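Final paragraph of the annual report: two paired records, presented back to back.
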Amino acid sequence: MKLRTIGCVELNSIGLGMETADAMVKAAQVELVLARTTCPGRYLIVITGDTGAVTDSVQTGLRLGGDMVVGSFIIPNVHADVVPAMNGVALPGPINALGVIETYTAASCVLAADAAAKAGDVSLLELRLSAGLGGKAFVVMTGEVSAVHSSVEAGAAQAGEDNPVVSKIVIPSPSEELKRQLL
């Protein structure tokens, strides 16, 4: 599947999340990238398709989800690294500097990851979305120190518009022991 635009709705209800995922797929010609439970008792829905269809689908999700929605987004022309990192299939190259952005919601972390990947010459290594994290999420990236620093700042700024960032870290020269733990 070639991703073009992605959209997301994150809810505080698992049952309503499942119902919302179904309604979003039926509302417009979109494909479901993921629909799953996350911590703490949330449900995350990510869809892809043409921008108009994704917009219609997300609007349906927001209407149905109502006050149970904790985050949402639409990203036209999503960076190619985002979904592989989200699905745990990113292919790491050499690990130079490391950058980490940690957020309070999965939706804000995906926004941060996309902005970070577009801001500099970095590779996303992992995009962990709330599973076993008490509802928080994080993205890990690598590249040259200056690129990682710029990307972390851009990603944190994007995530921070609606949701504060828990932490943003740049590790200029990570130890070999840490690198082995990441791979």
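The closing record of the year follows.
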Amino acid sequence: MDVTPFTLTAHQHPLVRALLRENADTVAALVTGLGSPLHIVLPQVFTQNALQLQAVFDALGVSHTLLYAKKANKAHCFANACSALGMGVDVASSAELSKTLAAGVTGSMIGVSGPEKTDALLSLALLQGCLVAIDSLSELQRVVQLAGKLRRAARVLLRCRPHSQPHSRFGLTEREQQAALDYCIQQQRAVVLEGFAFHLNGYSTQERARSASALIDLCLHAQARGLATCRQVDLGGGLPVQYVAPAQWTRFLQQDEPAHYHANRSFGGFYPYGVARPGALALRDVLTHPLEAGTSLAHKARTHGIQFILEPGRALLDQAGLTLFSVQGIKARQHYSIITAQGSSLSLSEQWFNSEYLPDPLLLGHRPASAQPFLACVAASTCLESDMLTWRKIAFPCPVQRGDRLVYLNTAGYQMDANESPFHEAELPLKVAIELSQQGPGLHWQLDRSPSQFT
């Protein structure tokens, strides 16, 4: 019975390739010494991604602010990279805000989002001069009250619910938008309206461009009512990442079937791992999307002096991290094997979103390929039937052995820590920040720790 699925070969950034090919022994030693699973994060790649996104805005002559969506990865080195770049961060909790400030990012470069934020978070944001995205009328009223107590004017965006997503729980309806705008006009001593934001599910560049265009119109409306400071539109995030080649992805979708998975598992849907226009290309598509009268979103923003805010998470973290698991054992089954790895799928979060992280894991190190591929799924080491790292049967080039290390590539964006917990009293996996030499083999590594841990 042939159940061999098509391969989904994960892209490798040149620095990732150098890490795995030229420094494999060092990587293996880190897993031995620091435990499995082990997350490796690469701030150099994060910086390159940020510069590529900024270059798109600059090429189109569009004023912009880049805010890293911190929820996408808890690693402290990425906030440090933002500080070094003079770039902002988007946060949604007091802990995220405190750690971002500790990394050296100034309050004026921090956006605060999320629904119905706590008074503690709002107070800290006001004291630090952060830009707060308001999600409800009640939250706006609380911000004004806190601003009066703290004697600090609040910098705010009004988050609007797009017409295309009428059932979203986020954002203000049209009636609420007008009421909030009226309130901002009444409370100009306590609140400074700087613009509008929206929350958009999905990856449609056309829908994002149309929503942004509508918010430019709202900015012009607010300016006409006397709010001259209203000149920013927050595009949110939602720039897709390309994990595998589009042609491979298309073939995979065409041939995908339950027989290719352990226990004939099926899924309702997957992340678009082979999207054709990822990252900076998707951003360009948003900004150059044609609007009324043949103009583009970028042209409309330039014409009216509007600044865009972009809040990428996954797109900034593309190729900026990988996760390694040690193999504990292998169990033979008919036509395939089950690999048991040390750790849990809490460290590969897609499973906990009721989906599958599809790029093929790699075997670390070099071993000759066998005549026939070694077909296996990958289980985690907890007591749950559902705790699988990879349900799909992967065609490894040679038999997997106890003590091998499996490498899951490109896990920095939402995979490596979104759902981690000390299940079975296990310690949370460590993160190692690595900087590779640009002139040849060699690297520098250190544990990724918060500033308070260095005292």
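The radius of gyration is 24 Å. This concludes the annual technical report; the extension proposal builds directly on these records.
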